[in-house]
Specification:
- The chain has 281 residues and is an all-alpha fold.
- It has 9 helices and no strands.
- The longest helix is centred in the first third of the chain and has 41 residues, at 6-46.
- The radius of gyration is 21 Å and the shape is globular.
- It starts with 5 loop residues before the first helix and ends with a helix.
């Protein structure tokens, strides 16, 4: 089988990952707006009010367009990375600058997919790892933009991890179930201890669910490593932003991107890192 060749499978995964990265850009841009509309409709219903009808808006409709002039984005203008380079980072119709983040998300999604294919070889584990990493990318960027970790991603991800591990995907089912529960409850406990001590909220409920999802995929054994990695990196980035970028101390810094990054690292090297730091201790 052609795909059984490691190099071929890796190249195919990269190309497919680039295409998925283009879709992730849509998810990152539209999902928060979709959720805000749903919340507004629910609030209006509870208040006995009716909202004015709005045009259909989801991940597929309306067609992607330039936010400046509204010109539809053609298929040729939607080729991952290449289109952005050919357009020199600007809308062909109005010249509005197109954020470099779009090709960056596509590139990261493609490279990550290729690394999953190379690391796990052809099989269910490689495909599952790609799905996990793509979800982490979407969650990290959405949380960075909006301080939201949507249930629409975290909860299906948690159940998918349990389902995968029901047949011994990455860990046994018992480790996955304990990982999901321990991941959620650990940050839930930290949240309430911090709130009782300071009267402030140190993190959101989405962080609990994200760590629970990571535990469901990778087992309880890596949870301490994930929390340590995310806390160390988060503290370093936070201090750097305050010292060098003038970031206000009272301005929140989302924790989700650090949890997501630590989860990805743990997926590939969690057991090795666990052995290393436990041996050091």
């Amino acid at each position: 089988m052609l795909f059984a060749q490691p190099l071929v499978f890796t190249c195919v995964a990269i190309v497919f990952g680039l295409a998925v990265g283009s879709f992730l850009n849509v998810v990152i841009y539209r999902l928060p707006t979709i959720l805000e509309r749903e919340w507004a409709a629910q609030c209006a219903e509870l208040a006995g009010k009716e909202l004015a009808p709005q045009p259909r808006y989801n991940l597929a409709v309306p067609r992607s367009a330039c936010p400046g002039c509204g010109a539809p984005i053609t298929a040729l203008q939607n080729v991952p990375i290449l289109s952005w380079l050919m357009l020199k980072g600007r809308c062909k119709n109005c010249g509005m600058r197109i954020s470099a983040r779009y090709p960056m998300v596509e590139a990261v999604a493609g490279i990550a997919a290729g690394f999953c294919a190379w690391h796990f070889d052809l099989g269910v584990a490689a495909v599952a790892a790609m799905l996990f990493v793509w979800c982490m990318i979407a969650l990290a960027v959405i949380d960075y933009d909006t301080q939201l970790l949507p249930d629409d991603i975290t909860l299906p991800l948690l159940w998918a991890g349990l389902l995968l591990n029901s047949s011994g995907g990455f860990v046994d089912l018992k480790s996955a179930v304990i990982g999901a529960v321990a991941g959620y409850l650990s940050l839930w406990s930290v949240y309430w201890l911090f709130k009782l001590a300071t009267g402030k909220e140190g993190m959101g409920y989405g962080d609990f669910k994200l760590l629970g999802a990571i535990g469901a995929w990778l087992g309880w054994q890596v949870l301490i490593l994930v929390v340590l990695l995310s806390a160390v990196v988060g503290a370093a980035v936070g201090i750097s932003l305050i010292v060098f970028a003038g970031h206000g101390r009272s301005k929140p810094i989302p924790f989700g991107p650090f949890l997501a990054a630590a989860g990805v690292i743990a997926m590939f090297y969690g057991h090795e890192l666990n052995k290393a730091y436990l041996g050091f201790l």
